[in-house]
Amino acid sequence: MVEAGQAPFAVRSGPGGGHVSVRTDKARVSAADTALRRRADAGLPQRLARSAAAREGAQLRTAEVPDWLAARRRAHSFRVDRIPFADLDGWSFERRTGNLVHRSGRFFTVEGLRVAVDHGPFRQWQQPIIHQSEVGILGILAKEIDGVLHFLMQAKMEPGNRNLLQLSPTVQATRSNYTKVHKGADVRYLRYFTEARPGDVLADVLQSEHGSWFLRKANRNMLVETDEEVQPHDDFRWLTLGQIGELLRVENVVNMDARTVLAGLPTPHSDDSRAPALHTDLELLSWITAQRARHDVRVERMPLDEVRDWHRGPWAVEREDGRYFRVVAVAVEAGSREVTGWTQPLIEPTGRGVTAFLTRRIGGVPHLLVHARVEAGLLDVLELAPTVQYTPENYTHLDGADRPLFLDEILAADPERTRYAAVHSEEGGRFLNAESRYLIVEADPESPPTAPEGYLWITPGQLGALARHARYVNVQARTLLACLNAGAVPGL
């Protein structure tokens, strides 16, 4: 008997006398709607590889990019000044909690976090953290020009960058920005991402941001291809993946949001499950699951005014010992942004980070030493991080077993073992002068290829395959993966 609202079915005998349900003509779907396709675009990794091999583009030569960026800086008025909290416009500390909030109730809040873990030298602590629940869009528009994929990159000002203006994705906007809570101008090229058709989407994944400074923050990382004629605005230029790779060798040119999108690109190695590796993909996934299961991490939001060992002054919320980071306020002028002037809080780290992968060939195949790193702000307890991800100044008071593993090896590494090195800014919209020295360093050939608890040797292809899914690879590891995807690290 057919229930009301159900599609009718006819029943006939199947092979071996079993019954098979068959839709009647009334519920039949057109053949075009049910056409089967390949589960993946087999040609996309090769198209991306050709783009990575193209060190010059159709619109702008690589050597001309610095001059173009300099011209865009001169074309607009940019200025960032530190201000006391009392001069923030629209932001205030709540009386009841001390949390730093915006009067609209949107954008983000700075509040307190209480953390307890069961491993490591620090088992309990409290800290300020940015809580921003809305999901933003980080989107790069792609187009074939003269048979080579090009990417529409933006010269975008962010108040936290030391040099203010860097290459960013085509669209880099929070929901509050692109729904115009700030009553600013429209976000250029937004429709290519909000109205993208399935066949146009080359990559699309929700990814975490800095788990030490954001509470469960995620952005939608997208790569969308168009065949339309797109005339770039003066602040945008088409570049090949190879050109971006060359620029990733230069200090503070390609911003964090562009790097995280590029980390999610499929490559021939990340798409090839037959490629050799020390551990199978199933063993890798099982190891990640086991690492998450073994850690007991308890995270609780709390009023900012009650955070222990931190105090609030007129200009900063900071630790009494000066370590880790501080919360500060800035006034911003930016002629090229949707809103040309505003004030906001930023997190300012107290030192430059060191972020590095150790690499070695195992059976002739390059491998990276990943760390299953617990961070309080991550949704799934931990994600795969580089071998080392620390600010050395924060650990000078520790010695022996309490020192972070591999940090001293990276700091003392022979320059001849360094395969990649560059300073890159972290997210400039929320962090002030936040930089890390990113490195890929060959492991000491005399050291055994075994990995201590919490670490595992995996191939770049395996890391790339995981980066195409949510919450497996942290944002620092994705920066180094972007360098590999764009060809900035030859031979690896």
From TrEMBL:
Residues 1-24 are annotated as: Disordered. Residues 62-265, 283-484 form the dTDP-4-dehydro-6-deoxy-alpha-D-glucopyranose 2,3-dehydratase domain. Signal peptide: none annotated. It holds the Pfam family Hexose_dehydrat. InterPro entries: EvaA-like, EvaA-like_sf. Coiled coil: none annotated. This is dTDP-4-dehydro-6-deoxy-alpha-D-glucopyranose 2,3-dehydratase domain-containing protein.
